[in-house]
Amino acid sequence: RFVVPFTPGASNDIVARLVAVKLGDAWNQQFIIDNRGGAGGLVGADTVAKAVPDGYTLLLAYSTHAQSAQLFTTLPYDPIKDFAPVTEVIATPLGLILHPSVPAKNVQELVAYAKANPNKLNFGTSGPGSSPHLANELFNSMAGIRMTHIPYKGVGLYMTAQIGNEIQVSFSNMFTTMSHWKAGRLRLIASGGVKRSEAFPDLPTIAESGVPGFEALTWYGYLAPAKTPRAIVDKLQKEIAAIVNTPEVRQNFIAQGNEPLANKPDEFGKVMKSDAEKWGAIGKKLGVKLD
Q1: Is residue 47 within 8 Å of 3, Cβ to Cβ?
Q2: How many whole angstroms from its chain centre is CA 244?
Q3: What residues form DSSP beta bridges with 205?
Q4: CB atoms closer than 10 angstroms to residue 237
Q5: How far is CA 16 from CA 57, 126, 181, 276, in A?
Q6: What is the pLDDT of residue 239?
Q7: What is the DSSP-derived secondary structure letter of residue 207?
Q8: pLDDT of residue 198
Q9: Burial call 71-80: b when 16+ CB within 10 Å, e when fewer
Q10: pLDDT at res. 291
Q11: Residue 227 carries which DSSP code?
Q12: Mean pLDDT of 34-59
């Protein structure tokens, strides 16, 4: 069973179902998608943390799973110690998106305008401590600018607010916002990736556009309960990696602005620990504490 800690139709739910179908075909066995939404993913993660470590229950975790290690005051589990990393499936750079009224066509112009007009620009997020919030605060810090944070209860709400010019700046998944910036309702000026996206090769990264070292990615990856035998973890990683690396699945992910990964368990573990430290430090600086 693949536990997805969000409701059906969410982006990680779509990833889980794609892999589940392929893995079921390969093993001639049904894989059940168990949507356990609630509390920002905590309900589903807790289910897996307490599951029998026999390889039959996996969590399709989102990058906020690692961030929660530092941002939540109390958790019923340890996001790092209570899970065995299997493989990171995809990484998705967050796009830097502007309302057309902002007099900036690139990162340099945005930074110059924001410096000349401190706190005049509003940036929207899906709430305190969310990936868009932390990404924008990191951008503000590294670029030496100040913008005003306006939190909303979800990506759809702050996208609607940005189209209506209630907010002028946001970080969001480039694929889910594609219809808006292709229609000219919003303007995508750069990505938070380490390198340019295969799906958007003409779009520069923020790091190459005047804020060197900037990186803001979200990821999806499979986690097993801690104490799952390493032989089982390795077998699962091998099989899932084989699926992710098929031309069909790779092209499916790339077309949506994702980078297929399928890395080794130890590599994925390092990513989780690094994210917990990096974003936790930003959250601590901001005084973000979630219950």
Answers
A1: yes
A2: 18
A3: 191
A4: 22
A5: 13, 23, 27, 23
A6: 95
A7: G
A8: 85
A9: bbeebebebe
A10: 63
A11: T
A12: 90
Nearest to 154 by CA among 130, 182, 176: 130
H helix or E strand, kind and range, residue 217: strand 217-225
Under DSSP, the state recorded for 196 is -
Strands (E), 57-192: 58-62, 83-98, 122-125, 148-151, 169-173, 187-191
Residues 41 and 37: their CA atoms lie apart, in Å, by 6
Residue pLDDT, tens place only, 93-150: 999 999 999 999 999 999 999 999 999 999 999 888 888 999 999 999 999 999 999 9
- What is the pLDDT confidence band of residue 6, given thresholds at 50, 70 and 90? confident
How far is the C-alpha of 145 from the C-alpha of 111, rounded, in Å? 7
Mind spelling out the 3-state secondary structure of 55-83?
Answer: CCCEEEEECHHHHHHHHECCCCCCCCCCE
CB burial of residue 255 (10 Å; 0-12, 13-18, 19+): exposed
